Amino acid sequence: MSLFSEHNISIYNSISGQKEVFKPINEGNIGMYVCGPTVYSNVHLGNLRTFMSFDMIFRYFKHLGYKVRYVRNITDAGHLENDADEGEDRIAKKARIEQIEPMEVVQKYTVDFHNILNLFNFLPPSIEPTATGHIVDQIEIIKIILEKGLAYEVNGSVYFDVLKYNKSYDYGVLSGRKIEDLIHNTRSLEGQTDKKNPQDFALWKKAEPKHIMRWPSPWGMGFPGWHIECTAMSIKYLGKHFDIHGGGIDLKFPHHECEIAQAKAWNDCSPVNYWVHANMLTLNGQKMAKSTGNNILPSEILSGNTNQLSKGFSPSVVRFFMMQAHYRSILDFSNDALLASEKGFLKLMDALKTLVNLTPSNTATNFDVSNWKKRCYDAMNDDFNTPMLISEIFSAVKYINQIKDGSSSIDTENLKTLKATLNGFVFEVLALQDNTNSNSDKKLRETIEILIALRKQARDQKNFGLSDQIRDQLAEIDIQLKDSKDGTTFSLD
Ligand code: AMP
Ligand code: ZN
Question: Is the CB of 46 under 6 A from ligand 1?
């Protein structure tokens, strides 16, 4: 019997605004679609957080024995600078600025995305389709929406007719926005657009001859709108009605609202059972974003080469930091928070090393391992509550340390359960990696600490030649020293 049959997961469904008991359409199978990155620049830590939340969800489903088809796309065309269909295509713009082909932009940042995800121990999705690989599928859907009279063509572009759609369906079901408010709040684009109404959105945009990323269509040369790609790819690979659709909460409107409208207009079926939205990572209280520059890159956090950090942090510490917050809570990034997470992470890794060498005994204990195991699953079954899971894991850490110092004990059977449960949650579900393991790594770190102490001595004696030499020679082998008012720290690149 699969583990999933023993567990009821409840998931917060953005469309109902409630936690609901999760029931997949086909027992034992899950179809999950997550909006992927627009590959026109390096992913920042905020993007990484959203993808990590879904990696954790994917991993937990797999841990429970579900067969999951996880589709996460690559947006390599159609995403304009402004979500309201205005501005240049983000990838085309970058290509123009860097004077390279748009597909070179796409290749460069797709490779970066995959490298970063590998470093942070992500599982690859089951399918990773691209928008440009599905132009034909998108055109076919647009043709049908046009036939149904819910879109219109103007000057080689096709727009979705939101007001007409809203007469038969409900535009705003996901975001809770009322069409009247949208009409009231959207500024008129008189003279700037071919749209009948500002709420309408592009399904297909006409491209001028200078636009490199353009494809033939029944309406002339052009490119697809941003929202239609996700409708085409999710339904192609998961069916017209599938289990879970995810993305960052900033995609709820207009992107996901438009996806629902397109799918319903196309085949009269609400496409998704559970809409799952991950919350934002902030920096200095503001959303991390590519456009504002208020962001940190994963490479910067690893090296520590940014003003925001006193040192570099390992991928597992970053993962641990992210998993300490619930995926639906806003999480603020700071050096202090990372330092605290590192402490916790190292304590956990130490306890797991102790666990390997614990010897069982038959003395009675007051720690109920079976009950603790149940509480770990209860946490994850309650809308993937990783902070609660981590707090349970730390009650086990405390217990392990008590067994080590002789103030508690564990019998053979419970030791087996404790080891299996901790390994499953820590390494499989939270996907932490013990990079503190190797003895040589430990010795290297201790050696650098000795060099830092010698450098300090040299500086105290005003021997700056020697202190600079220590710093520079370490830098030559990619060991960076960083001085701050609290002392010197280092990072290994
Ligand atoms: P983009 O490449 O801009 O399309 O974004 C890729 C994913 O990252 C989307 O799911 C966004 O919702 C998500 N995202 C963007 N900024 C943040 C942030 N500051 N925190 C968490 N997720 C974010
Ligand atoms: Zn999408």
Answer: yes
